[in-house]
Amino acid sequence: MPIQHLLKTQAYINGEFISAKNHRTFPVINPANQQVICEVTCCGEEEAELAIKSAKQAQHEWKKYAAKERSKFLQKWFELIMQNQENLAYLLSMEQGKPLNESRGEIAYGASFIEWFAEEAKRAYGEIIPQDRSDHRLLVIKQPVGVVAAITPWNFPNVMITRKAAPALAAGCSIIIKPAPETPLSALALAELADQAGIPKGVFNVLPTALAEEVGSVLTRSADVRKLTFTGSTKVGKILMAQCADTVKKLSLELGGNAPSLIFNDADLEKTVDAVIASKFRNSGQTCICTNRIYVQSGIYRAFADKLKEKVRSFIVGDFQQQGVNIGPLINENAVQKIQRHIGDAVNKGAILALGGQRHALGSTFFEPTILENVSQDMLVCHEETFAPLAALIPFDTEEQAISMANDSEFGLAAYLYTQDFSRIWRVSEELETGLVGINEGIISNEVSPFGGIKQSGLGREGSRHGLEEFLEMKYLCMGV
């Protein structure tokens, strides 16, 4: 696969690929075989300060571009990404491990945000307010918030960047991206294509680093950075939120999840099993909105469990280059230890291991797709995000019981329900304490809908027309005439 033209190993600051002052680097590891793919520049405080200075200078001019001009840059970036979809997908799979088909889908999904916000850039409407006095005219305009810092995770290293960068650039903001150290290559490839698209110097910057706390501290304490957007764990989100308090930054936080699926007796069994599989096992279960707790009503429990087991048993586990692979490796050894801890806790408390449960014969961080039956609410899997290919089945009898268990979580990102009863769809959807609800559907994310959670799953929304507002400030003008 000819990926060399996209394989960048230096930081991208002010329109140039540069090394760290001290030439410090860190390795990027292929999770399938634990081999080093390459060494990448390890940015520190000095590079972070340089990026902020460059972004501030660039943003001063970028905000003056007409929305239609910014739109054209984004459209060109979108076109280049889609022209390079196969190479970007290969690079993504190599550093992250997911099957190539899933990576192809992620590249297209990520690009869709750029295409969407290329259009939304032209729709940052203000308003005229009916005046309170005849000699007044009252107006509201929208302006870019300023320099944006984005801290992104490893599980969707392309989408998590484009979902933040596209609306930021569309709004007239410059952006500094700190990608996860596990997956910096996708971020740097996007920088190369942004450069080819002609996006002005300093508007789009990428700081690869293994020194997350050092670089993160520079970004959060800087008064020149006016917004932080972060996707990651609730624990880290709280730390960043506290660090941003001194400069009162605008915040978007997409944090942890523990998504419940509620499957009622009248659900379409075949379609429901397929939808749950799509939600649970995509990216080896390493998605923030993947089903983590599967509540199944007693009348359909046995049939659902058997059908799920039958289909999951046929999954192919392997390297992304292998034909027909469904499940790739987990990102690292810590992820393996977490699923082992969740399985051990559940079995010790009475759950039944129905399928899998072991590190895969391939070794490394490959893990068998696993099903636990008769899980109860007191087990770790019901209160921690597993982030691995583990399906936990929990029986229930009544709708009220299911809702109560589903809401028994500090998280409130996504939930799913499966039923043919339209009255129940409304009742349950309104009662679930989450920002997203999938109804008879396991794949619910897209660029046109608002994505985000409530409770300790975060603040703000990404995607949709609402996603642009996150990068705009409202200014009221009162004119005497």
From TrEMBL:
InterPro entries: Ald_DH/histidinol_DH, Ald_DH_C, Ald_DH_CS_CYS, Ald_DH_CS_GLU, Ald_DH_N, Aldehyde_DH_dom, Aldehyde_DH_Superfamily, Succ_semiAld_DH. Its EC number is 1.2.1.79. PROSITE patterns: ALDEHYDE_DEHYDR_CYS, ALDEHYDE_DEHYDR_GLU. One of its GO terms (biological process) is gamma-aminobutyric acid catabolic process. Residues 19-476 form the Aldehyde dehydrogenase domain. Keywords: Oxidoreductase. Gene3D superfamilies: Aldehyde Dehydrogenase, Chain A, domain 1, Aldehyde Dehydrogenase, Chain A, domain 2. GO terms for molecular function: succinate-semialdehyde dehydrogenase (NAD+) activity; succinate-semialdehyde dehydrogenase (NADP+) activity. It is an enzyme of class 1 (oxidoreductase). The active site is at E254. It holds the Pfam family Aldedh. It comes from the Bacteria. Belongs to the aldehyde dehydrogenase family. This is Succinate-semialdehyde dehydrogenase. It comes from Canicola haemoglobinophilus. The gene is gabD.
